[in-house]
Design goal:
Strand order of the largest sheet of chain B: 1-2-3-9-6-4
CATH architecture of chain B: Orthogonal Bundle
Number of helices of chain B: 15
CATH topology of chain A: Alpha-Beta Plaits
Largest interface: A-B, 23 and 28 residues
Number of helices of chain A: 2
CATH class of chain A: Alpha Beta
CATH superfamily of chain B: Cytochrome P450
Number of domains of chain B: 1
Strand content of chain A: 25-35%
Helix content of chain B: 40-55%
Number of domains of chain A: 1
Number of strands of chain B: 11
Number of strands of chain A: 6
Largest sheet of chain B: 6 strands, mixed
Oligomer: heterodimer
Order of helices and strands of chain B: EHEEHEHHHEHHHHHHHHEEEEHHEE
Distance between the termini of chain A: 28 Å
Shape of chain B: globular
CATH topology of chain B: Cytochrome p450
Radius of gyration of chain A: 11 Å
CATH class of chain B: Mainly Alpha
Helix content of chain A: 10-25%
Shape of chain A: globular
Distance between the termini of chain B: 58 Å
Strand content of chain B: 5-15%
Chain lengths: 75, 399
């Protein structure tokens, strides 16, 4: 499996709640009060999807290898 | 180390209004890890510096799940806690993400028009009754109560009954554990019934979304749906209501800030952040102590694995290391990062809704009442005592 995901954080939208950095410290870190993805290109990891779903600002977007947005779930 | 460390009784002495006991600021300078003993539970460290409190809130080395199985420092015989607050990521994340979907800033933004409408109707009633009015009863309590009803999806016909239950549950008059249990059981029964209806007829509200989540595989049990909804009620109602009252009080007693906000309504979002920072909502440290899972180096010293920390968020929000002239209410300051809503995995789920309720209430008050004022001398205000949450019992206003 060489499926890769792409994680982006919209730092304009980020409210600095720190939920992501506490939930998935291997993927997110607060930098000057706002979140940053430690790596944009990652191996699939469900915690990243959960984290995107829990962001109150919907600032975290996850895309699959085909470029489709897979989180947050806007249903 | 604890052999030689002075142990202080906590909470400290009685508090007046929205004042913060100066001992917190002394501790920030001289004893940033202060040994404290609460009426119940083991001894713990009181953290007062912004950086330390923020670390304890946001760093995975500090655990809430551990607090659920320890003799946690507490004010009452019974421990405070429950679903969502007794778990750490990733267990906590499973529940949190299901509820979080209803609380995104975007979803809440869709309710802003409704909040404005409800506020306007409540203020119409207040004007009809004439001054003086108690802001708490006229606006601060009903607005968040009705907005939570909107969000959960409580039908209009049931709202008075529902608010009576919640109001009695959250009442400032002390209830016996039996009475409190009865109200919670009534509410839980009502919500279970409402959830069952949604299973038959799906809806777009929070309860409908939780029911769908519970029916998709084994993700949420029926009991979890009810418990989560109760947590949202408990966490979101009295705190928001108290802050609407406290923020109005703060502005009325800081006339230059009030005048500035009147002349610059665009400052409202930043003003609410600053009011969150400046206003001590809780009477003492956060009701949820954290436990260190390993030795953690803080600015004030080392917390050893297995030791609990208590977080004085109100003092941290006034730490001179983080905010210049921290005791001054300044609605033009950048208060971002304030800890009133917490920080990290347990950051307030309802923060976007609370912000919107408060912004809407304050904006409407300023716009409709150019001569808004306290109807009694400030010294005559009666403040809640013996409660976890601060605020005047009533805020008599005239206009």
């Amino acid at each position: 499996m060489d499926e890769r995901w792409k994680v982006t954080v919209n730092r304009e939208a980020c409210l600095g709640s720190g939920i992501c950095a506490a939930t998935a410290p291997r993927h997110f870190r607060l930098d000057n009060g706002k979140s940053r993805a430690l790596q944009e290109d990652i191996e699939p990891d469900d915690i990243v999807l959960d984290t995107a779903d829990t962001c109150p600002a919907e600032a975290i977007i996850v895309y699959n290898a085909a470029g489709h947005r897979i989180a947050p779930d806007t249903a | 180390m604890s052999d030689t460390t002075m142990v202080r009784s906590y909470p400290f002495g009685p508090i007046q209004g929205l004042e913060i006991d100066p001992v917190y600021f002394w501790l920030q300078e001289h004893e940033p890890l202060a040994r404290v003993k609460l009426p119940y539970g083991e001894e713990g460290w009181l953290l007062t510096r912004y950086d330390d409190v923020r670390t304890a809130l946001g760093d995975a080395r500090f655990s809430l799940a551990e607090a659920a199985v320890r003799d946690v420092p507490r004010l009452t015989p019974q421990r405070y806690g429950g679903i969502l607050t007794d778990q750490d990521p990733p267990d906590h994340t499973r529940l949190r993400r299901l509820v979080a979907k209803a609380f995104t800033a975007r979803r809440v933004e869709q309710l802003r028009g409704r909040a404005g409408q409800i506020t306007s109707e409540l203020l119409d009633e207040m004007v009809t009754a004439g001054p003086p009015a108690d802001l708490a009863q006229a606006l601060a309590l009903p607005l968040p109560g009705l907005m939570i009803c909107e969000l959960i999806g409580v039908p209009y016909a049931d709202r008075d009954q529902f608010r009576d239950w919640v109001g009695a549950w959250m009442s400032v008059t002390a209830l016996t554990p039996e009475q409190r249990g009865q109200y919670i059981a009534q509410l839980a029964g009502y919500l279970a019934n409402l959830a069952a209806q949604r299973r038959q007829n799906p809806t777009d509200d929070l309860l409908g979304a939780l029911v769908i989540a519970s029916d998709e595989g084994d993700r949420l049990t029926e009991d979890e749906v009810v418990q989560l909804t109760l947590v949202i009620l408990a966490a979101g109602y009295e705190s928001t209501a108290s802050q609407i009252v406290n923020f109005t009080y703060a502005l009325l007693t800081h006339p230059s800030q009030l005048a500035l906000l009147r002349s610059r309504p665009d400052l409202m979002p930043g003003a609410v952040e600053e009011l969150m920072r400046w206003t001590p909502l809780l009477a003492a440290a956060d009701v949820l102590p954290r436990y260190a899972l390993e030795d953690v180096e803080l600015s004030g010293g080392t917390v050893r694995a297995g030791e609990p920390v208590l977080l004085a968020k109100h003092a941290a929000n006034r730490d001179r290391r983080r905010y210049e002239d921290p005791g001054r209410l300044d609605i033009t300051r950048d208060a971002q990062g304030e800890l009133g809503f917490g920080h990290g995995a347990h950051h307030c789920l309802g923060a976007p809704l609370a912000r919107m309720d408060v912004q809407t209430a304050l904006a409407a008050l300023l716009e409709r009442f150019p001569d808004l004022r306290l109807a009694v001398p400030e010294a005559e205000l009666e403040w809640k005592s013996g409660m976890a949450i601060r605020g005047p019992v009533a805020l008599p206003i005239a206009w």
